[in-house]
Design a protein that fits this description.
heterodimer; A: about 250 residues; mainly alpha; Cytochrome Bc1 Complex, Chain D, domain 2; 2 domains; two-stranded antiparallel sheet; B: about 600 residues; two-stranded antiparallel ribbon; 17 helices; disordered C terminus
């Protein structure tokens, strides 16, 4: 087992092991961009590990040196001299060959909302506002039911029967419709943020939310102010999520 | 030769004063002119925005350096004075020499920045003057006071030694007070631009200027910059020492600069540990001032900026730990602690990964489909503040553990209660880690308003553990048996490159955070009050900003090298005037650098 005590072998084992775990151990698969960041950290850590004292560094470098200069290692050297350029070439090929898929893009999923919007030529505040329908505790049930109806009529085709983003049209859209069950969407937004998004839709998004335009329609001409608040209420009610509260300034 | 030196020093001394005089006389004239002036002029070639950006950033770098270094230079001088250990006095002098060399450049850049404002942004400058004019005078006077104190501090080193040493130390303290006051005033202008207060909706001053000074982000930025300046000063001084180490020709010189680098890094690291907390507070205040601004900062187009920040800070953590581990090689007896390195490294690496997990992922459509949305059901947990706070607190604890092990590397405690003491220390580490993890996990089960409060408990646990461990550690190892003297200078050269890397990383990080702080104003000069109507009103994209920050960082280091080289010129010929006796021959057990 002295083979395993060589720092060089350890380093290779750690790197390969980490890659396998990150690539295949995370379900659903992690995006490639994240794996790249993770692997960069692992490489850095491994380099620190092998070089954190002189003995260890020597035990790491020696095999590399031997492979490069030892007369006895000539065959290994030859194999590497053929293999490494081929691998690099393959890498270059994967980078250059364009697939049918749109390239990965950074898109701000939740850009900063405006502090107020024009809704049917009326100014509506977004910043610091709560859903006005919640104040009317007696009728909340009624509003939720109305919201459900609005949802089924207008939103279901994209956002899905189960509010999970898997509606009929979803497969054709990029970016895909929001999955409201996901704790990363409405659960972390204030209700007035939703009001803005529903009223202004994809066209209302700032540039940082491009390059692919969102298919989310702007509903301001089709739904009234009250209806938008109702469907918002429904989204939280149906998913069991709580809207984020506004923080009070001290 | 000697005459030449005197002339040069006189010129050095005159430069900042002249710059200031120019500045002060330029102000009222500029304000009068402004009425008939255009709102903007265009800086040739690169445009006004880039010009101001570059000069402001450079000015800030130098200013941070000359404000940060005196803080620990004076502490080190006091240590040397009280313990009568020559080498501390040498070290302090070495630090002040660096400040001194950078002083004029800071002032020149400041004056240059002012000319840019007056000339290229006259309307903006007139407005700022209408609010802050009273502070200009205080600022100018403080600058005079600061300049003369630092000059006296530097030149009076021999003159005010011996029984007059207390006066000399007093000068050091005084220059720190002036320096901090200057910082506070400068910060009031910059924070007013972010979070204006004390003015009407049209921007007229309501009452006294104090309300404008004491705005939402003023105190958080004061604290944050003060701490960051210490870190920055420490890393730059350490990089300087590394440079000297690598160029050294004798063992004695190597030993001395190895030690200087170590202290510089120690200072930087100690301050760095509290920096994330200060940053967090600043973030909270920005939210409290204006939530839209807060969301722009954290969730909007800047969200990726925080990933880059996380990567840079991760590099800083890894780098400073790595330096400590490499440093163990110069300590006989440290071998017994080597076995901890892989574990600490693992925690740091995992913490780094969690912290660097983006909130908005870069995904292809196919990946998004596989994930069932743009949020990853598992990685999503790492993208939020709860996870990041937990990661950074654990990284801080680990770094502290590294330092504790380094501290005791060549010492064997002779106290009878050592077993109990160590047990309590380990328990403190474990309890703190448990609290951090507990609140980190619990944070997922409560809403965001409650969760935010948790970070305070996490920080409290970590700081508490640090205090407790040190309270035990110091008496436990007082008069300890030594396993050998630290062999200063016997450290692999790569450790020195790490010090340089840390300095460059931190400078870059400062540039990045400066961009964030400035960029969240978006198209406002003064947020919500004075709109930016120039051609440059758009906030540049991250890649563009990164190029700019890199350029400024390169220029900064080129300037620093030039200045330090100049400073080193005067050393030639009078080598040893301040150091031959000051070799850090430090016996084991008493080498404690604090």
């Amino acid at each position: 087992m002295s083979f395993l005590r060589s720092r060089f072998v350890q380093a290779v084992v750690i790197l390969v092991g980490a890659f396998v775990v990150l690539r295949f151990g995370i379900r659903p698969p992690a995006p490639w961009s994240v794996i790249q960041i993770y692997m960069a950290v692992v490489v850095l850590a491994v380099l620190i590990y092998v070089s954190s004292d002189t003995d260890s560094w020597r035990s790491f470098v020696d095999p590399i040196r031997a492979t490069l200069v030892d007369p006895g290692r000539r065959p290994v050297r030859l194999v590497l001299a053929v293999l490494l350029p081929i691998l690099l070439g393959y890498y270059a090929y994967t980078q250059a060959a364009a697939g049918p898929e749109a390239p990965a893009e950074l898109r701000a999923v939740h850009p900063a909302p405006p502090s107020s919007i024009q809704f049917r030529s009326k100014e509506i505040n977004i910043s610091g506002v709560d859903n006005p329908l919640r104040k009317d505790a007696a009728n909340v049930k009624k509003h939720v039911a109305a919201g459900g109806e609005i949802y089924v009529r207008n939103c279901m085709y994209c956002h899905g029967d189960n509010l999970d983003g898997h509606g009929r049209f979803a497969a054709a859209l990029n970016p895909p419709p929001a999955n409201f069950e996901d704790p990363g969407t409405i659960a972390m937004l204030q209700e007035s943020y939703l009001f803005w998004r529903i009223a202004k839709g994809g066209p209302g998004l700032p540039r940082e939310s491009t390059p692919w335009s969102s298919a989310m329609p702007a509903w301001e001409d089709r739904l009234t102010e009250e209806q938008i608040w109702q469907v918002t209420l429904y989204l939280y009610d149906a998913t069991g999520q709580e809207p984020r509260r506004w923080e009070t300034a001290h | 030769m000697r005459d030449l030196r005197v002339v040069r020093q006189a010129v050095w001394a005159a430069v900042p004063v002249a710059a200031l005089l120019l500045t002060v006389t330029a102000l009222p004239a500029a304000a009068q002119e402004a009425a008939k002036e255009p709102a903007y002029r265009a800086f040739p070639l690169i445009g006004s925005r880039l010009a101001v950006w570059a000069v402001a950033q450079l000015h800030l770098n130098f200013a941070a350096f000359i404000l940060g270094v005196p803080i620990f230079a004076v502490i080190i001088e006091i240590i040397g004075w009280r313990t009568r250990q020559e080498q501390y006095d040498w070290l302090s002098h070495e630090f002040v020499k660096l400040i001194f060399a950078a002083f004029s450049t800071t002032a020149l850049l400041g004056a240059f920045l002012l000319f840019l404002f007056v000339g290229y942004y006259p309307k903006f400058w007139t407005y700022m003057t209408s609010i802050f004019f009273p502070t200009y005078w205080i600022y100018a006077l403080l600058f005079f006071a600061e300049t003369f104190t630092v000059y006296l501090w530097y030149y009076g080193w021999e003159w005010l030694s011996g029984p007059r040493k207390w006066i000399h130390v007093g000068l050091g303290v005084l220059s720190n007070l002036f320096g901090t006051a200057i910082l506070l005033i400068g910060n009031s202008w910059v924070t007013f631009m972010m979070s204006p207060a004390g003015v009407t909706e049209t921007g007229a001053l309501k009452g006294s200027v104090w309300a404008a000074i004491n705005n939402y982000t003023w105190m958080p930025i004061n604290i944050h910059r003060l701490i960051a300046n210490i870190v920055f000063g420490g890393t730059i001084a350490a990089a300087y020492a590394a440079f000297r180490f690598l160029n050294a020709t004798t063992d004695e010189e190597r030993a001395r600069y190895d030690w200087m680098g170590y202290i510089g890094n120690f200072v930087a690291l100690s301050a760095f540990i509290v920096l994330p907390f200060a940053g967090y507070w600043l973030g909270r205040e920005i939210y409290a001032f204006n939530q839209t601004m807060g969301i722009t900062m954290m969730g909007g187009f800047m969200s990726w900026l925080w990933i880059i920040q996380a990567i840079l800070i991760g590099v800083l953590f890894l780098g400073s730990n790595y330096y400590l581990w490499l440093g163990m090689e110069r300590i006989p007896g440290s071998e017994r602690y080597r076995k901890y390195v892989p574990y600490m490294l693992t925690i740091l690496a995992i913490g780094f990964m969690v912290w660097a997990t983006p909130h908005s992922l870069i995904v292809t459509l196919e990946e998004a489909r596989a994930m069932g949305g743009t949020h990853h059901p598992f990685l999503g947990f790492f993208g939020v503040m709860s996870a990041k706070n937990t990661a950074v607190n654990l990284m801080i604890l680990t770094t502290f553990l590294s330092y504790v092990l380094y501290r005791r590397a060549n010492r064997l405690s002779i106290r009878p209660w050592v077993v109990t003491g160590m047990a309590i220390q380990w328990a403190a580490f474990c309890v703190a880690a448990a609290i951090v993890v507990f609140y980190g996990v619990y944070g997922y089960f409560v809403e965001s308003i409650v969760r935010i409060g948790f970070s305070v408990y996490q920080v409290g646990a970590v700081l508490g553990a640090i205090v407790l461990v040190m309270t035990i550690d110091i008496p436990m190892f007082r008069g300890a048996k030594s396993t050998g003297t630290i062999r200063w200078g016997r450290i692999p050269a790569r450790s020195q490159y790490v010090l340089i890397l840390l300095a460059v990383t931190f400078t870059w990080l400062m540039g990045l955070m400066g961009f964030a702080r400035s960029g969240i104003r978006q198209y406002w000069h003064v947020y919500g009050i004075l709109r930016d109507t120039s051609v440059d009103a758009v906030t540049p994209a991250l890649g563009y900003a990164a190029n700019m920050i890199t350029t400024v960082t390169v220029v900064f280091f080129a300037l620093v090298m030039f200045i330090f080289w100049l400073g080193g010129l005067s050393e030639k010929g009078k080598a040893g005037a301040h150091g031959a006796a000051a070799m850090p021959v430090i016996a084991g057990g008493s080498e404690d650098p604090r």
